[in-house]
Protein 1
Amino acid sequence: MGKTLKDVALLAGVSTATVSRVLAPGYSGAFNKASSTVSEKTRMKVLSATEELGYRMNHAARSLKRQSTMMIAVLFPELANDFFMDVAEGIEKELYAEGYSMLLSSSLNSVEEEKKRINMLAGRTVDGMLVIPASSQGNHFQSLSDRGMPIVLVDRIVEGTNLDSVTSDNEEGTFNLTKALLSDGFRRIAFVGGEITLSSARERLSGYARALADAGIEPEPSWICLGGMKTEDGYKHMGKLLKNKNPPDAMVAVNLLVHLGMERYLLDMNGFSETNSKPSVVIAGFDESGYTPFLPACRYIASQDAVGMGSRAGKRIIEKIREKKNHKDESKKDSELIIRLPVTISRPVYKTA
Amino acid sequence: MGKTLKDVALLAGVSTATVSRVLAPGYSGAFNKASSTVSEKTRMKVLSATEELGYRMNHAARSLKRQSTMMIAVLFPELANDFFMDVAEGIEKELYAEGYSMLLSSSLNSVEEEKKRINMLAGRTVDGMLVIPASSQGNHFQSLSDRGMPIVLVDRIVEGTNLDSVTSDNEEGTFNLTKALLSDGFRRIAFVGGEITLSSARERLSGYARALADAGIEPEPSWICLGGMKTEDGYKHMGKLLKNKNPPDAMVAVNLLVHLGMERYLLDMNGFSETNSKPSVVIAGFDESGYTPFLPACRYIASQDAVGMGSRAGKRIIEKIREKKNHKDESKKDSELIIRLPVTISRPVYKTA
DNA sequence: CTGTTAGCGCCTTCAA
DNA sequence: TTGAAGGCGCTAACAG
């Protein structure tokens, strides 16, 4: 179907080896040395023949030969998620800059699906994998990693593995978020949402707990509403919380969707469009979006650098791939490396305070 | 590094051909026929050898041989975009179900970048491409298509090409959106945002114009605020609109981001948190999200089935790939096929009207 | 500086 | 039902 190296070689009147030398720059021997190992004259001949034929390299053939596909598999629990897509944007940009492509797939928030996809992706012989784990199970990642597949975990770490991770400083972030509420005088502060199987949720919970402890506050059990990371979870939790005799006056939302659900509940109960009144509780939410200024109860926001996280993860996986290529046999198993990005606290940008 | 067919064959005491026959089901000859062409006994031997060695197929080798990578390149103008990500979700699901993988890349809203990426992706020998064009330029797609690369355009069509497209019925959608405002009694209705280079924007504009014409209304030139598809564009346009002596009392927003920007402007000018008053203008916006109920000025929403669009596009590109494989030489160039998905109008779900 | 050659791992006729 | 063998398109020694 497509033209091959041989066609180009024929037209240019040289050998396929020469064509390859022209078209695989910075690879064999001299790195990107413009005057590599081919005379300017033949180089030109080859280039124009390439042009004339509209030649396109066959990636499969190159991959087979080089034992490297220049592709990174990226596995997310879901795609339609503001935070994840910012991460994806960062990853893609970084990978592309280094000549890699991103094979993106969704685990549908299911460990079973995750295992299937990871196997499929491993079968595609990608050079490495970037994954946001769907749960706290990590054996499938660990064993793939043990077999030599470079893997970097993103956003969520998995305990009991020695896998590299790039994530945010969730604990510190929620600590500061909670402290902001405390210094505004709130004392009855709830924590809403969070799958206990996810490291990010656990870390956020513990930052919250530490802030309360620092302030000498013993949280009532009913304030801690674990379970769920989605809109409907926030909605339900908010409903239950407000039914208490003596409900909290402030809340920390584990993430953006839960936050959204909580606000939805308030909207449904005493919609501001009807009563024109500000909500009676205040929310400090983890994760920002263009919409947070419109969430009436939102007082503080903890922002992660999602794009930065993606690009950091991209850098790291490429590093690992290169290390592997260089060291090769030296089983220089460095221990687990966890990169934590800072989280910043701010008010949503109402013009008026 | 990895185990090969040969390793498996050796361990199982059979030839590589036999192993291949076991592990490439539904391919050579009999489609998925459980009792294909290998005895149950040898089949078992092969399977257990495969297991024992932890054999993983080398995708590059298979691709080289089969001349098919089972990968679809997907090129979006940007990734961090609610609408696009829903589309991506639909695409990925559909592709995965058919055994394809998604190579996702961003054109950064730039035609130049788009050309680069498209070339890179074509070089990867993907089996087909799904793209949301960054502009009204389509030569690079057309020529790739002419060379035999199956391509389906998504969300935006490009005139002057004969490329298949899957998109929404934008014209009808905005027509109905505008009619909803008209039947509420609004007469001074503006249209805000929209790159004239994008078919979706043009179609939405024309639906708006048709609705006004139907109602016998001649729009004032100042009501039509073209330019831009992003938050900041909506913000700026809203500022200008409200400076008119006799400003519009209702507006149609070309998309979600522009809508968001318009609301932001209102928030900054007379934030509801301060005045507790409903905004003085009403917006009908194209595209929905979980946040639209929180946008104070939002009266109507036109919702596209973004996930459905993705899955439809996925189906279509796979169809085209199969057609190509079957017809092969028969140059049965069907003419351009445009699939249009319906757009539904609704009110954002305030509990109170 | 350039050509020859031998595979990378898999699939698929063609024979047996 | 199975094996032997050639080749998909590219690259990297090794010669020249």
Protein 2
Amino acid sequence: MKKIKIAIIDDHDLFREGIRLVLGQIEDFEVVFDTSNGALFLEFLKNSLPDVVLMDINMPVMDGVEATRKALASYPGLKVIALTMFSDTTHYTQMINAGIKGFILKKSNKFELQQAINTVYSGGNYFSQEILQKMAFRSVNVSSGPDRMTQRELEVLDLVCNGFTSQEISDKLFISIKTVEVHRTNIFHKSDVRNVGELILWAIKNNYFSIE
Amino acid sequence: MKKIKIAIIDDHDLFREGIRLVLGQIEDFEVVFDTSNGALFLEFLKNSLPDVVLMDINMPVMDGVEATRKALASYPGLKVIALTMFSDTTHYTQMINAGIKGFILKKSNKFELQQAINTVYSGGNYFSQEILQKMAFRSVNVSSGPDRMTQRELEVLDLVCNGFTSQEISDKLFISIKTVEVHRTNIFHKSDVRNVGELILWAIKNNYFSIE
DNA sequence: CTGCAAATACGGGTTTCCCCCGGGATGAAT
DNA sequence: ATTCATCCCGGGGGAAACCCGTATTTGCAG
């Protein structure tokens, strides 16, 4: 019987190694390679083509969504499962558009992981219950799709999340403080929060921002 | 040769299982049990006594520091290594007082983990380089020890981190908004930050607060 | 070309934050 | 009994945040 070839992309060494061993325990699975970021992943693909890829979304150098998009451009048959810390409710359309076939949380257990891999390998989609609920709740609550952040807004969002004031941001970006405030306001409306505290929580949960 | 008996306490199933397998690979190590929170850990101790405990600090039900304190009260020979996501610079005195012998980050690799376990098992202490640097930097920078948060301040801190305004906090705690502002100011001074954004980052990095 | 989205900028207004100052009440410790 | 920490409450003020507009430039897609 042919084993399912799996690749793991995650920047946490211990976690990656752990997952590798967890999957190695399972008969039908074989981890062909693992690496710590999206750019290295694309290099590995040239030599070895896995059936299923477990992809962390939030990573340095190149994030999971971009890596998935680029990988699928060259290897359309690749099946990618996002493996994240939080249930990201705003990026899921981007992810699905990028070609992600499954989405599970890091706090799930190995049985769910196993099921996700098998399902996706067989041509299906797998989304964990918690994420499905949030997606459903979202589509009921918000009739329109999630507002996409502008490039500039993403810059400002990152600086706000890092604790910079509007004045400091205006100095860094060489724009008027008024402009910064406009971006702030737009960001707040798009993310449906009221203050910086809620914004940071939202940004972390939705992979717009991460500590360190 | 007698193996080193290890216990793993962490609320993330996949990570815990991964670590278990990583350690299982190493000849001298034997994982005797793993569990998802401090309270269950104390129950397990009654039946099986490990040599070294890998303890996540931030956990539901009972956090790692409290679990360590209680465990050492009954079993003074126990050696506990803290295994956290961030390099917590404010709790390290508490941790050392609680009896923690080592402190490493989740993003470290298995070799460092192995070394930490061996060192601590042999009666030594192990602190990862990154944490040592922060501790040194801190002791140079701040002559006085880290200011301890009051119980009330911890409550306010949690609410601030959850994105509540001072008015909302005053409503929740049935105190004047002026009192809330006093607490805020004291919290800001104790944590040496300037605004809510920096405060949340600080709180997360120092395990005063965590998402979800 | 034209329409639209994005980025830039400004003004004026309200609210919240953040800091300074002060005082009073409690309870524990010495 | 005095000291100390903690919690509570208040005034006042400046800075920043936040909300409401309008308006110009740029660039891209239809």
Protein 3
Amino acid sequence: MPRKALYDLQAVLTQAIDVLLEHGYHGAIMDEIIARTDFNRRGFYLEFGSKQQFLYQVLDHYLHTQLDPIVGLLEQNQGLVSVHDFFDAYVRHVRGRGCLLINMITEMGFDDEAVRDRGRHYLDRLQIAFIGCLEKAQRHQQVRADINLESTALQLTSYVQGFAVNAVLAGDTDELSLATRALLGPLATE
Amino acid sequence: MPRKALYDLQAVLTQAIDVLLEHGYHGAIMDEIIARTDFNRRGFYLEFGSKQQFLYQVLDHYLHTQLDPIVGLLEQNQGLVSVHDFFDAYVRHVRGRGCLLINMITEMGFDDEAVRDRGRHYLDRLQIAFIGCLEKAQRHQQVRADINLESTALQLTSYVQGFAVNAVLAGDTDELSLATRALLGPLATE
DNA sequence: TTTCACTGAGAACATATGTTCTCTCCAAGC
DNA sequence: GCTTGGAGAGAACATATGTTCTCAGTGAAA
């Protein structure tokens, strides 16, 4: 029997996230991807077939292991508390590195439908989760009754993307945490 | 005497914006840049020296001709009216194509200090302009007295970046206009 | 211990791509 | 009209980069 592969696919995908975050898709060259993952060229093409397919798998791995748990906080659907929890976790996550999904959307959204689809799906999910939390918060008089739920949710969704961009430029994210409070404050009941 | 150059530098830079918006920096190859601008290879390297220097000039041209006029609306400093004017113009601007500066920041912000600097400068300018408008609005009782100006301004700044990302995914931007109203509504005095 | 299917490392390859060079042609001055 | 310095188009070049191939080495099974 042959020896079995030494690399751990999950670990490789996780390591690749950093390379793609730093240099983008086209800027991340195979040599660096190979060098910075517990991987080798042969295994790479046996496993993924191409750099593009590799991207999709990294992206899905990223969504599943890193974004899902954070969005999951929002889907706890505990009203304003969930919204706060979500933003806290998200700010911590994008701190100093941004969001891989957002980066891929802005870099290749025009050319790559698969990336665009994942982006739309993610934004839809955020939007729906925000609406759920805001509904519950409104029922419990945590937020003003006169706000439009859908618009406010879309606003929060935009805000999340803005964080991802700012995080690339801002070393620390303390000010982003402050901004979160400013965002949610005016929504609250007096 | 030789004949003089036929190309119009300003026009070339403007045409290049679209190419870079569509494919990003690394994704935009010289062949397409040459083909889609009133330009030729020789003139290109005589004028810019390299693709990277070219990017900086396109970026500055973009900032000067497209973003400046929009941020200028905010710097009119007419309180909430200016904020509304700004968002209207910005939403129209990013509609279906996004923002070149934001795209460059997310694609190469980690590697390119010059891009990062331009991004920071732009965000600072937005932040200051928002603060100015909010101050004035507060003095005129257009917005609640209990909001923190800096945090709210930072929140609006983040929101702007979020627009740029959403615009890549969302074909139409009507819903973004709606969200803006929802954003500014809760800030207003009762 | 021997076998051998498969791994890992990197050489090799083909193509893509940023950059430079060549050559023809034009238009302003004589 | 002739000259000529620079423009325009694209061939040519060198390198970068995604992909494939080769081959020695390894570890489980017999």
Protein 4
Amino acid sequence: MIIVITMPKLPFKAREKSDCLGARRSTRREAILDVLTSGPGHLSAEEIHKAALKRLPRIGIATVYRALKFLCGCGKAAEFIPADGVARYEPAGSRAHHDHLICTSCGCFIEAVDPEIERLQVRLAARHRFKPSSHKLEIYGLCSNCAGK
Amino acid sequence: MIIVITMPKLPFKAREKSDCLGARRSTRREAILDVLTSGPGHLSAEEIHKAALKRLPRIGIATVYRALKFLCGCGKAAEFIPADGVARYEPAGSRAHHDHLICTSCGCFIEAVDPEIERLQVRLAARHRFKPSSHKLEIYGLCSNCAGK
DNA sequence: GTTCTTGCAAAGGCTTTGCAGTTCT
DNA sequence: AGAACTGCAAAGCCTTTGCAAGAAC
């Protein structure tokens, strides 16, 4: 069984709070959400940890993972796992869905959307009597920079 | 940097052989390829190992991983990593590309293709001056069986 | 006999968990 | 005070690697 959207065991009170940032104010979670929204996007947990350390010198990697699970559960962040198997995180909720063009040379991520593809995916699922809840399209290849070399 | 299609270090002679099954005949690699082609598909390394053990009671998991890398390098198998982060393998080469509908309830994989989506993906990449080499579309949701419940 | 292949055990990399101490309300 | 949050270290899981023994050519 595969869980795609992991809802963390939110503390009881957190579920009642509209901002979903937790039952209590937490400097770490706020910092991590901020790293996520102000950073370049598509960061790994380790990269997020590194960025967070600049603001909170003693924050541990476990806290980062916990906060990320939490934020994903709240819909404030989204996790996705590219072909290298290392999870990346991006802010979610306020941002539109998008697919990824991933450069296999420099590792950069380009966000892209094609409404038509989105529509066709729904059709494809329907054709198989499949009820889609989320999807993920990744195109691997060379970005314009790397292809030029 | 993200390597999507990992070409294993093939032994020198293996590269010259057309069947690409290795420089030498290997019962294990043949068995694993057979598990792959005759099995239900989308098996994890562990599942493949379990199936292989029935034929070769002493085969080790390392051999399975090595063989899988090898077969992927030869184009005889394809690896893909769904949202749970655990690699799955399927026979390749003789089979057409396809996308996956993945049931988040029972974990089943449905293979599907939509030629139009394929075309639009190329267009989408081109629009970003991106040179695609492979892509992966996964739709998560409920299969008809699970949706009915 | 040389080179490839294998099993085993150990190590690696990413992620989660247990626990005791700390913080928030 | 009570529940939530945190850092640290340990454990977990999947995968790879080192090495000595075995097999193929």
